[in-house]
Structures are given as C-alpha cells and as structure tokens.
Amino acid sequence: MSDHETPMVNGVVEHKIGEEVLPFVEDEYGGVIVEMTTPTDPKFFVATLRYSFTQWRSQGKKGVWLNLPLSQVNLVEPAVKEGFRYHHAEPTYLMLVYWIPESESTIPLNASHRVRVGAVVLNHNKEEKYGMLRGSGVWKIPTGVVDEGEDIFAAAIREVKEETGIDTEFLEVLAFCQTHESFFVKSDLFFICLLRPTSFDIQKQDLEIEAAQWMPFEDSASQPITHKNELFKVIHRICSLKMEKNYTGFSKKPTTTFFDDKLGYLYLNKQDMNNPIT
Amino acid sequence: MSDHETPMVNGVVEHKIGEEVLPFVEDEYGGVIVEMTTPTDPKFFVATLRYSFTQWRSQGKKGVWLNLPLSQVNLVEPAVKEGFRYHHAEPTYLMLVYWIPESESTIPLNASHRVRVGAVVLNHNKEEKYGMLRGSGVWKIPTGVVDEGEDIFAAAIREVKEETGIDTEFLEVLAFCQTHESFFVKSDLFFICLLRPTSFDIQKQDLEIEAAQWMPFEDSASQPITHKNELFKVIHRICSLKMEKNYTGFSKKPTTTFFDDKLGYLYLNKQDMNNPIT
C-alpha cells in the first residue's frame, strides 16, 4: 500500500496525517472558514493544514479564516508560523486569516469604532431636563457603550433605565460626534439621543452613579462644565431650540439594507421627508 | 548569597528569574499595560509574570493589559494558561487582558462596529447624479469602509476620488443606517453623505469599478434595484427633496469632546442651529 492510499478499517475511512482536509465551510467571497472546535495535536494540525492548503490552492480559494477558540490556544503559534496573521479577537476566540492569491488582499478590515450614546431626557410637563451626578459633582446626561448587535435607540433607552430606573421612548438622534484614538487605535462615535420619559420615579441603580434627579433645564445648563466644554454648549443650545420645536434631528425608521436585505434602522430627518416635493 | 539578593555583574543589575517585574506603564484607570517587544523565553516570561502579579496585586492594580506583537506569538499560550483572555487583535499584535479585583470587570468592550460611507454626488448644473457600475450592471453610489482614525466626511471624499478621480466637498450626512451581524458578530453603521463636485473629469481608478459616469438623476433612480430596495428608495426620495432644498441633513462642525477635550467633528442640523430661539 502506498503512502497515499486511504486505508479502510471496518468500513470507516481512516485518514492518515497529511491526507485530511481540515473541516471548513465556504464563505460567499471565495474563501473558507475553519473553526477548530476540538482539541488537536499541533503537529497533526500543521500537517493537516498544509494538506488542506494544497487542496484550497488548487481550488482557487482566496481568504482562509481560522477561528481558534480559547481552548485551542496551543494552535495559535503553529498557525502564525504557517503564515497566518491575526484578524480580530473576542474574549473567547481568536480569528486569524491567510490570503492565498498573489493579488492584493481584499480581506475586510476589523471593526474600527466603538459606539456610545448620551441620553437627553426632557420632561415637557415641567420644562425640565434629566441630570446625573457621577463622583465629581458634575451633573451629566446618562451615557454608555452600545453593545454589538444593539440598536442605538435601544442602547439609549437601556442606559437611562439602568442609571435611573425610568422608562423612556426614543425620539431623535440630535447630533453625533466622531473622535479618534479614544480606545487604543479605535475611533469613537457618540450619538446624542433625545428621549421622552414614560415613567417618572427615579430609582438610582448603577453603582457608578452617586445620585440621580430631575433637574431644571437651566440649572443643568448653568454648570461650569457646560460653559467650558464645546460639546455641552452645543447640546444645551440644541435642547433650547428643541423645547421651542425649532430643531429637527434624525428619527428612526425600520429598513432593509442595500445588498443583503438585512433588517436595520435608518435614522433620518423624518420631518423633512414629509415635505411635499414642490 | 541568598536566592533573593540581586547580584551585580560588572555594575549591571542582573535580575534573577522570579524577581523581576515585566516592563509596564500605568493606565489612567488603575491598570497596567505590558508590551512584550523583545523575544522572551516562555518559562522566563511565566516566572516574571507571576512575580509581577504579586507586586500588582499588593499595589491594588486592576486590569492588566498584555500586548503581544506577532513576533512574540510563543507567549500567547503561556499567557492564556496563566488566566489571560483575548481582548482584541490587529494584524500585527494580540491584546490580552486580566482583571485582578474580585469586583466585576470594568474592562471596556472591544470595538463593536464597522463604519461605511455611501457618497451621493449631485451635480447641480445639470441636475444629475453620480452613478457607478460594479460588475453586475447595477449603477451604485461610491461606497467604502471608514478606516480607523478617519473622519466620516474625509472617507466619503476619498472614496469618490478613488473610484472616479473627481474632487468633492462634503455637504451633509443625509441619513445613516445601523445593521447587525454584518461582519461576523460586528454591527455596521452606514452613513449616506451628500457631496458637491469641485472637479468634473471622471477617471476610473478602482479595479473593482467597471465604469463610472455622470448619470441623469432620474436614470439612476429608475433602475429596478431602486424600486426593489427600501434604502435605495429612501435615498432617492431624500435626493429629490434635496434638489428642491427641502431636506436638511447633518453638517459638520469641529468640536472638542466631553471628557478629554479631544478634537473631533460633530454632525448636526446646522440650519436649525441658526434658528433664533423664539
């Protein structure tokens, strides 16, 4: 029997090292995705990987994604030595990638932005604004990070609920701000959302919050930080206009995306969208 | 000489394994950041890491960030076995993290969103819209990914330049769309930008583009895809309103951020900002 024959043992194909292709699924861009879910000997892994590459090359495959769960950390060093590069990581796995063709890589870049929300809750009965105290004696609007898979409007509602216990309804994104190198090399997008309260009893819940209260709009606006900081000043100005119904932000509308008809939310100037075209 | 004395050899302090703290800098949240820049023996690394932890624990340190460049891939497995978890990765390095206190981790989440732009270039002389052909016979607006550290408006200008060679000026974000699981678990933010051309000679540059041309607005809007896809329909409607000056998006304004006075850009309804408060 030559080295390249596959022996049959009791009717089961017994692959020899170097004759087995790693389990993979194809992606829609001519690449393959390998997820190593079971403990694997590094030597067996390397031999199988090399054999797999001979197959993938001959099939004209492009990008090879290699997902190594934390439990398969012993395969990280062999994978890098075989030419893989890091692509991204989450607490429980590391994703590596290898670009086969001679042509320039079209491997998409890693996620580049953190997204945060700040929630302005205006109580129209009392013309008051919701304010927060965090440690330093400064009243601030509730803010927080938007999780992966979380809608911006939902994050704003969640943050207000977490920090103060009140329920709100999303009205508009009043403005947003982009800054860079906010978190290592990552950029930051901060969405300032306007919410309407649907319950009014404040229950401070977040440990990071020292106190929470309804606060007259003019009091929160007259804090020294509002005058010092450009962004605070603009938010105050927008809120003043908003209370007089003289400012329109972007409200939300369910939509489907360009390419894959995925469901999402579009944020746009709905008031102007209702204009007749003259 | 006891095991714990540090011997001097030719005036150079010679640290013994288990008596040296890894080189680190402190972060502003009570944590430390270690970057392993030089080749290190894994056994020495583990011993030094353990000794470092005794120091950091006694100093009340919280998060320990461990930056392992690709060349130090041999330290990934030992670090994970010592209890580190992946935080994020870029092609050339892997960042791991360890949370020392008993209390809940306040380690910030990894970047969660990819950001993309779509550029609508309206040529007001001819009431025409800029359109693109990509393979499939569909005319599309130029789109592309916003790089880390790149401003949204700059990305829109760059994409139009790359795909068509024309120069543009940023006017407004007309709307934006958020979708989920667009790229593995990451979410996607797509900003639809309106640009004004400042040069008009089209030079197709991007290899992915089959053709580029100025296209009458109504022709691009009458493509079947515009009618089929919700997002295309909305963009078309906004552009129609825009040509009649009946829609206001968010324009840009340099600003400084809330907490660290970092320079950034705020996108807001500038037209309404110029309203007098009644």
Automatic annotation (TrEMBL), chains A, B:
GO terms, molecular function: ADP-ribose diphosphatase activity; metal ion binding; NAD binding; NADH pyrophosphatase activity
Superkingdom as given in the UniProt entry: Eukaryota
Keyword terms: Hydrolase, Magnesium, Metal-binding
Necessary cofactors: Mg(2+)
UniProt KW Protein biosynthesis keyword: no
Domain Nudix hydrolase span(s) in chain numbering: 112-237
Reactions catalysed, as given in the entry: NADH + H2O = reduced beta-nicotinamide D-ribonucleotide + AMP + 2 H(+); NAD(+) + H2O = beta-nicotinamide D-ribonucleotide + AMP + 2 H(+); ADP-D-ribose + H2O = D-ribose 5-phosphate + AMP + 2 H(+)
EC number: 3.6.1.13, 3.6.1.22
Protein family (similarity comment): Belongs to the Nudix hydrolase family.
Function summary: Mediates the hydrolysis of some nucleoside diphosphate derivatives, possibly using both NADH and ADP-ribose as substrates.
Name by which UniProt lists this protein: Nudix hydrolase
Lineage: Eukaryota, Viridiplantae, Streptophyta, Embryophyta, Tracheophyta
Gene name per UniProt: BnaC01g41620D
